Amino acid sequence: MVTNNFYFFQSVIDKKTCEKITNIGLTEIQRLKKQGEKIDAEVGGEKERHSLPNSIPKNELTNKQLKEKGLSEKNVYVRDSQICWLDQNWLYDIIQKYIFKANKLAGWEFDVDWNEIPQFTTYTNTGFYSWHKDGNGDWPSVYKSYARGITQVKLRKDGGLPENYTENKNLIGKVRKLSFTLNLTEPETYDGGNLMFDFGKHGENEFYECKEIRPQGSIVVFPSFVYHCVTPVTKGTRYSLVNWMSGKPFK
Q1: Pick the CATH number of 7-247 from 3.30.420.110, 3.40.50.2300, 2.60.120.620, 2.160.10.10
Q2: How many CB atoms lie within 10 A of CB 70?
């Protein structure tokens, strides 16, 4: 168990930079749309809204709450958002600065050495991401090499790579260990869309709403094995930049 479940930096990225990232992300999403490429978010198991159009949203319900409502996990979708990838060097400069700082100040001192490509995400019109964790941190969860036409494991139905497989040689044998979220949106322009954590029942508060990053330009870093969700947006649009830093599995 870690001493600090998350570490935040409030309003550290200026408005101009937040708007710049947002505009770049929206431009990229429009470009992908015109080319007919996929912009709906992906998760393992393909339980996104676009792949289960006749199902209902899980929202921030836990599996226990689903059962209490008589709902099956097979009949709900767990994510509704649009994404694109922004592989720009200056974004890594921002991300690494705050991940390394949080890693030290929070007392984690995790052994990390590689960032995945930053992901720009939009949540609008009841968009959400239900409870999940970004990585387990153990050896069974390491990224494995995928070579198209050679690797025996089949691609997903939408053409995406199977879970825990990568074509990036720098990620092979590593796991997600630290997660990063930068809130790009002014808080008064949207309702809902709150980042929530599930810290388990070992403490006084199992669920925690991370209000610390509601201000535009705020950052939160947390261990990738911590359960979290984004509650449904009920008005406006929430834009964010997320990233994951990886390293060898925990010993």
Answers
A1: 2.60.120.620
A2: 6
